[in-house]
Amino acid sequence: LMTVFGVRLIARICSNAFFGFAYNYLGNSFFFCNAIVTLLSIIFALFTVDLPSPPAKERPGLRQSISVAASAIKETGLQRLIISDFIVSLCPSIEAGLKYFYIGVLSFTNTDLSIRKLVQEACFLLGIFAMGTCLKDVSRNWFLKFIYFSIAFWNLALIVVIDHHDFFPISSTVLAIGHSGIFSLLLEMKILPLMGIFMENCPKNLEGF
Questions:
Q1: Helix crossing, 172-200 with 140-163: angle to 10°?
Q2: pLDDT tens readout for residues 153-203
Q3: Alpha-carbon Rg of the chain, whole angstroms?
Q4: Residues sharing a CB contact under 8 Å with residue 168, sequence separation 6 or more, in sequence order
């Protein structure tokens, strides 16, 4: 799973690395070129990807699947984890508002936005690498608590970026990009343990439910 995510992120890093520069050079023609490249990529995938057919096995109905999944959640004691992650996920996304702030207040150029996205993707990849190496033996219970606290603290640090970015000796652009990168790293380090926990406790034949 980490290999798949890692390969996809490397591809996204490569694409984001050239987005701002390509748009500055090509202007609106960039979108036409992007559409053509996407079409060619899909055609290439259609003629090269040949996935083996999965072995035939009996799939339970929807009602039975819900019953089995609910029983598995109750037996493994994952209710509190699901509820806590649901509550955290209720926090509204401010990504769109931040983009307007970066462009309107901090005067981000297309290149700056591209670099910010590139740093975010690189931090995602760093999170995958860290979870698969130096942090793989850490207690998930305490680690998730620490990550949730870190995300909350780093959200509060956003106030510094928005209201007090002029008081720091480093440029506002570097401050904003650094904040986005570390926040992306924390999010990735939250998602991977959750995915691992649910995959380990998933009942047989309910992998795609």
A1: 160
A2: 877 777 777 776 667 677 778 888 888 888 888 888 888 788 778 777 777
A3: 21
A4: 175
